[in-house]
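User: Good morning. I'm curious how zinc ion would be positioned relative to this chain. Could you predict the structure with it bound?
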Amino acid sequence: MEIDIATIGGYEEVGRQMTAVRAGDDIVIFDMGLNLSKVLIHDNVETERMHSLDLIDMGAIPDDRVMSDLEGDVQAIVPTHGHLDHIGAISKLAHRYDAPIVASPYTIELVKQQIEGEQKFGVDNDLQKMEAGEMLEIGDSGNVQLEFVNVTHSIIDAINPVVHTPEGAIVYGLDKRMDHTPVIGDPIDMDRFREIGREGNGVLAYIEDCTNAGRKGRTPSESTARGHLKDVMGSIEDYDGGIVATTFSSHIARVSSLVEFAKDMGRQPVLLGRSMEKYSGTAERLGFVDFPDDVGMYGHRKSVDRTFKRIMNEGKENFLPIVTGHQGEPRAMLTRMGRGETPYQLDEGDKVLFSARVIPEPTNEGQRYQSEKLLGMQGARIYDDIHVSGHLREEGHYQMLDALEPQNVIPAHQDMKGFAPYVDLAAKKGYTLGRDLHVTRNGNIINLVE
Ligand SMILES: [Zn+2]
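Assistant: Good morning! Here's the predicted structure, ligand included:
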């Protein structure tokens, strides 16, 4: 069976991920992501109304025109998890393919909401839920199956999809960390990865997320971030003024730890901001979390401002607002609080907790610097970096190569500079650049079996 892998997006950047695997006549697409930084750098760009080709020209979504060079039928579009760099282009590209979107329940729900917000294209692909551990027949050959393996990441319900072919398995490894004690959901299924590495013809190719490949050691578990947060919040338990926290709104495990510790401190947690309401509301509706009844969630500007007024009237010491703005985004809630644009008034000594790391990119670094300065001018004390990454570091990558023993490795989810440490690591495991270690760029096709 002929096997090709098309590296469409996310091979020159972190963002706009998209990869396709052709096994004989059948094609499976993994991810259709958005590179948000390419959108945000322009003022007031509303992607909802934009055409795909304009977004491709901006470098915001994958240039999928290389798909016409793959001979076969697309049988499924498979986003691995709900982060925008993996699902954000579905509303712009999926309608060009006559195939269902197959994803885990939480991811499917986020895809559905994104499609509903789309204003340029009518996207009517079937939305099909599939859980980790399940298999799906691909095409009519009877020889190709899709499997979801449970992984752990900074968003719930993440999976790594595997395409089983007579030539071996193709494992798509974006995005994960190796967490054996996650706060929500099951640990990463390393047993299944080891089995896949040893059954049938083994693993033909492993496509890997190289985000943190250059960082030594192991990415700590989410339990570590939870412990760090508990320590910080315990240390300011007696403070009788304002405490505000911010984190990734899609990071449900972290949000739920913040909610729990707020209750322990005797404060009412309130989630504020559109995306806070969206991700947490969806997670609660689908039964992934069960927040206490008095947790407020407010997305719209007016209801947010009304809530801030209520907090000021009833006393800041009784509340813990959990808000958007961990990267200092100019329009996010925390930045507006720093500029004094909300009814919430910060006083000398009030605490601001960043349960996030600055994404190392000049725009983020600049915006976050500005936000912290503005908060500081109002007297706020900053607690930052209460966080662990969602991506594997060096030893996690080493363990994955041990578990899967892939015949070919394809680094992804980085630029050339970011691939370098992974290439070093893979070389130490015996892989050779150009032979079985394929460093590539966007828009290429790697022919694995002729
Ligand atoms: Zn991700």
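The chain has 14 helices and 19 strands. The radius of gyration is 22 Å.
Let me know if you'd like a different ligand tried.
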